Automatic annotation (TrEMBL):
Keywords: Carboxypeptidase, Glycoprotein, Hydrolase, Protease. It comes from the Eukaryota. The keyword Phosphoprotein does not apply. InterPro entries: AB_hydrolase_fold (IPR029058), Peptidase_S10 (IPR001563), Ser_caboxypep_ser_AS (IPR018202). One of its GO terms (molecular function) is serine-type carboxypeptidase activity. Coiled coil: none annotated. This is Carboxypeptidase. GO terms for cellular component: fungal-type vacuole. Its EC number is 3.4.16.-. It comes from Laccaria bicolor (strain S238N-H82 / ATCC MYA-4686) (Bicoloured deceiver). It holds the Pfam family Peptidase_S10. One of its GO terms (biological process) is proteolysis. Belongs to the peptidase S10 family.
Length: 472
């Protein structure tokens, strides 16, 4: 293990502590450690090189949501090089890891999430502030490891990451523009190629408006009768929820946004929680006594493995730090700031119009409030130069290139059908909130085609036919 301290002249209060672990997937180069922000804020990260051609592979930053949930849960439960197993006593190889064709960073943010910590009660409770910290991390990381800075950078975030990521992307975009006007040899232009939002919360007004449609008329209805009393009651609460969110959008104040999040969560999410369904996958029941508070026993396994003393040492984590999959105090701090009720979608059009691509995907059995119906609706409303084309485009089947199995539907604008698109929405079939967990092959096919800019409408038959054409 190498322990190294890296500082940066443009971020005088920031330092990067780096170690080289040999966990999870010993076949690839790894780095882990902390971004120290001033003396009281420390962000934990874990990086894996690509299994294939790392020198030429793009870079992905993966963030889980919550707010307050560790990206190590995404690593060990969804899309990392290894999967948690055996009650947290071991991990197994993941053949569908997203580092198959990409270098990838898993970052615990904001402070007090996962192994990230603060010394003197310092907290972060808004996505704009979190975005600045993530930008500082990326500058430090890419200056320390410049070989990863030359390829395209993709920002991927799940769930509440639909709020985080637009703020982070906007910070990067503005910093890049400033560097164009005032070059700084100490700062790198981050090659932001795309933003990837997975079952995210991005435009609360539009998404909350879809809850009854999904719960009552969706492919996996929560209630038996779409015209019954439960669905009637759910629909009756939506106008008030949307009125409160509209007030938040208009005034962008904690005093207008907090009432929106409290009402919408209690009146729309509360009744659905009482059904006994898994809130992350409406096809499943949830027995919290057996499955844990988050309805997946693997979350407890992850805590067991991450808190193993020898694993902490390998990752450069102090033995006295305790890992939790999600920190509910951080969750409450963001909630009581009304952070998630701001319209983060407004941060995206300038980026998209300037060539930064957007991928939004959602499982069709996912979380009630962040369902696939609402995600498609807000993407359709995005006011970009691709709006008309996207609105007129119909969804087409998407099948994986390896197995040829139909994995969902894709709707895309930009690229003329020859690329993965400038704005692309994907409905992933038979998947809950954590798509890579439920459909690992499909998720890897999706991310690989996106980062290589290959159309998702391309199917296996066309691929094989093209491969059979002899060279001229």
């Amino acid at each position: 293990m190498i322990d190294e301290l890296v500082s940066h002249p443009s971020f005088s209060e920031h330092q990067l502590r780096v170690t080289e672990p040999d966990l999870c997937d010993s076949s690839v180069k790894q780095y882990s450690g902390y971004l120290d922000i001033a003396e009281d804020k420390h962000l934990f990260f874990w990086f894996f090189e690509s299994r294939n051609s790392p020198a030429d592979a793009p870079l992905i930053l993966w963030l889980n949501g919550g707010p307050g949930c560790s990206s190590s849960t995404g690593l060990l439960f969804e899309l990392g090089p290894c999967n948690i197993a055996n009650n947290g006593k071991s991990v197994t190889h993941n053949p569908y890891s997203w580092n198959s064709h990409a270098n990838i960073i898993f970052l615990d943010q904001p402070v007090n999430v996962g192994f990230s910590y603060a010394d003197d009660g310092t907290t972060v409770s808004s996505s704009p502030v979190a975005g600045k910290d993530v930008y500082a991390f990326l500058e430090l990381f890419l200056n320390r490891f410049p070989k990863y800075s030359t390829q395209p950078f993709h920002l991927a975030a799940e769930s509440y990451g639909g709020t985080y990521a637009p703020n982070i992307a906007n910070t990067i975009y503005k910093a890049n523009k400033e560097l164009q006007l005032t070059p700084n040899a100490n700062l790198k232009r981050i090659n932001l190629a795309s933003v990837i939002l997975a079952n995210g919360l991005t435009d609360a007004y539009t998404q909350m408006g879809s809850v009854a449609d999904y719960a009552c008329d969706g492919p996996y209805p929560v209630y038996d009768d779409p015209e019954g009393p439960q669905c009637y009651a759910l629909r009756s609460k939506i106008p008030t929820c949307q009125r409160l969110i509209k007030s938040c959008y208009q005034f962008n104040s904690k005093f207008t946004c907090v009432p929106a999040v409290l009402y919408c969560n209690s009146q729309l999410f509360g009744p659905l929680m009482q059904t006994g369904r898994n809130p992350y996958d409406v096809r499943r029941k949830c027995d919290r006594a057996k499955d844990g508070d988050l309805c997946y026993k693997q979350m407890g396994w992850i805590e067991t493995w991450m808190n193993e003393p020898k694993n902490k040492v390998a990752l450069g984590v102090s033995p006295d730090k305790t890992f939790a999959s999600c920190n509910m105090e951080v969750n409450q701090a963001f909630t009581m700031n009304g952070d998630g009720m701001h319209n983060s979608a407004l941060l995206l059009p300038d980026l998209i119009n300037d060539g930064i691509r957007l991928l939004v995907y959602a499982g069709n059995a996912g979380k009630h409030l962040l369902n696939f119906v609402g995600n498609e609706r807000w993407v359709e409303l995005l006011e970009t130069k691709f709006n008309k084309e996207f609105s007129e485009t119909k969804s087409v089947p998407w099948s994986t290139l390896d197995s040829g199995r139909i994995a969902g539907e894709v709707r895309s604008a930009g690229g003329g059908g020859f690329t993965a698109g400038n704005i692309t929405y994907v409905n992933v079939h038979e998947a809950g909130h954590m798509v890579p967990f439920d459909q690992p092959e499909a998720a890897l096919d999706l991310i690989t085609r996106w980062i290589t800019d290959v159309p998702l409408s391309l199917d296996k038959a066309i691929k094989e036919a093209a491969a059979s054409i002899p060279p001229l």
